[in-house]
Design a protein that fits this description.
Layout (H helix, E strand, L loop, with lengths): L2 H14 L6 H11 L7 H18 L1 H14 L6 H25 L4 H8 L2 E3 L2 E3 L4 H22 L11 H12 L8 H11 L4 H27 L7 H25 L6 H17 L1
Antiparallel strand pairs: 1-2
Helix pairs in contact: 1-2, 1-3, 1-11, 3-10, 3-11, 4-5, 5-8, 5-10, 7-9, 7-12, 8-9, 9-10
């Protein structure tokens, strides 16, 4: 695997994982738009680890608070407010776990094939002619929803004041991100903005909620690593480091950007990309 391919994968993953424009949609399209072969499970794990480390480093103080809440939940220390926030993250993660396990068990095979022209085999979404259409339509549809939520949503709530109801609603929204083209960060920010959280707080909660989601995505691929071969270790390390840098810079940019601007630019990008995909394919 060339350095250029590793760089492309890392940059696309690092940027699109946290901007509300769909990382899965962009990563899936790389083989369509280039001559690069599939990067394999070891590189997938590496870029997920890079993304995860970037979140932990950037939001280190929040991660420490959540860790304190987790310890308090098992009787170690007293941190009632942190304990509540910890459980809202757990609650928001449950729907995605349930949906992901359902896909692995083949529960949605018939529905996916009849509605989207997708056949789910061995946990993989096998591309068909209509698969790129699905990505394009989701980019447009959820982009418009993000724009509406951002335009009409109030900004009177913060993460510290979150209720279990809000945590569950955002978690249910996050579960939709398993469908390519939806965007995990995009759909969770849409939900939080619709619920009345500020743009900054929406991004903050979305990133913190992504910690178990990104970690889980990496863990699910671990059994496949043993088939990848040790010779990919250096390439995986390079991909992980590059992804960490891209992801960290992306989060820093977005958190500062949302303090002074709306999400309109991301909405326009999603719609434009969706239209371009429909026209190109």
């Amino acid at each position: 695997m060339t350095f250029l391919q590793l760089l492309l994968i890392a940059v696309v993953q690092g940027i699109t994982e946290f901007l509300p424009i769909s990382s899965s949609g962009h990563l899936i399209l790389i083989p369509y738009l280039t001559d690069f072969s599939d990067q394999g499970p070891l590189i997938d794990v590496a870029v997920h680890v890079g993304s995860l480390l970037a979140i932990i480093v950037y939001f280190f103080k929040d991660v420490v608070l959540l860790a304190r809440g987790g310890f308090a939940s098992i009787g170690i220390g007293k941190a009632p407010s942190e304990r509540r926030l910890f459980w809202w993250i757990v609650l928001g993660t449950i729907p995605a776990v349930v949906f992901g396990l359902s896909i692995k068990m083949g529960v949605f095979n018939g529905f996916a094939e009849s509605m989207f022209g997708i056949t789910i085999v061995d946990d993989d979404l096998m591309a068909s002619i209509r698969f790129t259409d699905l990505i394009a339509v989701n980019l447009i549809f959820y982009g418009i929803l993000l724009g509406l939520a951002d335009h009409f949503g109030s900004e009177h709530k913060s993460f510290e004041g979150m209720t279990w109801r809000d945590g569950l609603i955002v978690g249910l929204a996050q579960a939709l991100a398993i469908i390519p083209g939806t965007s995990r960060s995009g759909v969770t920010m849409t939900a939080t903005r619709a619920l009345g959280y500020s743009r900054f707080e929406s991004a903050r909660f979305s990133f913190l909620l992504s910690i178990p989601a990104v970690a889980g995505a990496g863990v699910l691929i671990v059994p496949e690593i043993f088939d990848a071969g040790a010779e990919l270790a250096v390439e995986a390390l390079i991909a992980g480091v590059l992804t960490f840098i891209a992801a960290f810079l992306t989060m820093a940019f977005l958190m500062n950007f949302l303090k002074r601007a709306s999400m309109l630019v991301f909405v326009l990008y999603r719609v434009a990309m969706g239209v371009a995909l429909l026209a190109f394919f």
